[in-house]
Write a structure and sequence with these properties.
Radius of gyration: 19 Å
Oligomer: single chain
Helix content: 10-25%
CATH topology: L-amino peptidase D-ALA esterase/amidase
Number of domains: 1
Strand content: 25-35%
CATH superfamily: L-amino peptidase D-ALA esterase/amidase
Number of strands: 18
Structural class: alpha+beta
Order of helices and strands: EEEEHEEEHEEEEEEHEHEEHEE
CATH architecture: 4-Layer Sandwich
């Protein structure tokens, strides 16, 4: 049986940020009208990109282009957004900013087409669902991108993120967005992850939940796996009502097939701290960017292992940094620190 959810210290924030990878900038736009927003990871000079989608209910843009056998090798930004499928509109604003600043794939003497893959998460139930990230939000996030550590918690794509919705939103908690990085053998790997999981986020050191499904009275964590193993099955919920999305970046030189492998290995980081993960209600997707500034990777497994570790750390930072939220209809969504 999984550990009983009892009082235990919340882990300290993991250090670093995806912006520790040279050439990577991050900008958030958080909508003041309701908890939602978007986050842009900008690599305007171009970066090789791969993607791996594991959740059964994804919402994505330009992922087919990233297949290793397809022609375009580099992207210029990646968008993470709330708003469910509506949030994909924000990518148009990112493209507009990049085009105006001369960034994109040259397709003629006067035309550059910015390549902007995107993934979204479902946060429409938190506040007015008619308010969601649009092209103006994407433009604002892209314009705000800087190479210093971005804010974490209830900002950008993590503004409306929640976790532990499997037994109903009344027993859910606040998720968020987090980032972390590592540097080993002369190579940097960073990650940024918006955590909106259907089930629990757990402390990998002991397996106990940090944020997720609460008890029926809402006073403590129940433990999703403990409930499942006891035969307490969740009610049927709409597919796509959750989703964890993120971006890994490295300064190693990779081709598209190698970047795709790094994105695949990075999902191991989610599996270490989200339990269960990749459910039928989640659209979990991770992108991997390689700027190549540090030269060819001596060992692809090293980069993939660092990607998994950075992803896990970023996901934990997302819930550790989150703050509790009261919805417009009075529902209280506590954060990890509140319990």
């Amino acid at each position: 049986m999984p550990p009983t959810p009892t009082d235990h210290p919340i882990p300290a924030l993991h250090p670093g940020a995806i912006t520790d990878v040279a050439g990577i900038r991050v900008g958030h736009h958080t909508d003041s009208r309701r908890p939602t927003g978007c986050t842009v990871i900008r690599c305007e000079e171009g970066a090789v990109c791969g993607v791996d989608v594991r959740g059964a209910a994804p919402g994505t843009r330009e992922t087919e282009l990233l297949r290793p056998e397809n022609t375009v090798a580099q992207v210029h930004a990646v968008l993470l957004a709330g708003g469910s499928a509506f949030g994909l509109d924000a990518a148009a604003g990112v493209m507009r900013w990049l085009e105006a600043h001369g960034h994109g794939y040259p397709v003629g003497p006067r035309v550059r087409v910015p390549i902007v893959p995107a993934a979204i998460l479902f946060d429409l139930w938190v506040g007015d669902p008619s308010i969601r990230p649009d092209a103006e939000a994407g433009h604002a996030a892209c314009a705000a991108a800087v190479d210093t550590p971005p804010a974490q918690g209830n900002v950008g794509a993590g503004a409306g993120a929640t976790v532990g919705k499997a037994w109903g939103v009344a027993r859910a908690m606040k998720g968020g967005i987090g980032t972390a990085s590592l540097r080993v053998a002369g190579f940097s790997v960073g990650a940024i992850v918006a955590v909106n999981a259907y089930y629990d986020v757990v402390d990998p050191a002991c397996g106990r939940p940090l944020a997720g499904v609460r008890s029926t009275d809402g006073s403590q964590l129940a433990g999703a796996m403990r409930l499942l193993l006891a035969g307490e099955l969740p009610p049927r919920m709409m597919a796509g009502a959750a989703t964890t999305i993120g971006v890994i970046a490295t300064d190693a030189r990779l081709d598209k097939a190698q970047a795709t492998k790094v994105a695949q290995m990075a999902h191991d980081g989610l599996a270490r701290c989200i339990n269960p993960v990749h459910s039928s209600a989640d659209g979990d997707a991770l992108f991997a960017l390689a700027t190549g500034r540090a030269g060819p990777a001596p060992d692809l497994t090293l980069i993939g292992a660092l990607a998994a570790e950075a992803t896990m750390r970023a996901a934990l930072n997302a819930v550790i940094s989150a703050t509790g939220l009261r919805t417009a209809d009075g529902l209280w969504l506590p954060a990890a620190a509140d319990l």
